[in-house]
Design goal:
38% helix
Length: 137
């Protein structure tokens, strides 16, 4: 079980983990050992509450395919166990972050004194520039 919150968790049978060969430098070892982990999680077929599913499917995240499948590739570590833990932690963080509601923006207006200050500064600046012109007789 992958705990998401104190009430919600994802059963292990809904998470598909495959060991694959990692990319990048590593010498002979990278060609022999499958240390990277491909994690696949189907949002629509999962036992997550509907609110979690909707918020996850609405997210504009490159890890979520158009079919609603989360694909995470973990290959930062040299050991398969660490990459597996990393992939599960990233899935956990993705699902948790989907339930955080962004703060609603409150529209504000500039105060009367700040508007007056702005206009005064513009007027003063204009007078300075006007003083640089050629003097005509």
């Amino acid at each position: 079980m992958l705990p998401i919150s104190h009430k919600v968790s994802i059963p292990d049978n809904e998470i598909e983990l495959n060991a694959v060969r990692a990319q990048g430098a590593g010498g002979q070892n990278v060609n022999k050992v499958s240390s990277a982990i491909h994690l696949r999680f189907d949002i629509r077929a999962s036992s997550l509450p509907d609110a979690y599913k909707e918020r996850l499917l609405q997210r504009n995240d490159q890890r979520i395919s158009s079919e609603g499948i989360v694909v995470i590739k973990a290959q930062t570590h040299r050991r398969q166990e660490l990459n597996r833990a990393d992939a599960l932690a990233r899935l956990q963080e993705l699902v948790r972050s989907a339930m955080v509601t962004p703060k609603k923006r409150v529209a504000t207006r500039p105060s009367k004194s700040s508007r007056k200050r702005r206009v005064d500064n513009k007027t003063r600046r204009g007078q300075i520039k006007a003083g640089r012109k050629k003097v005509e007789d």
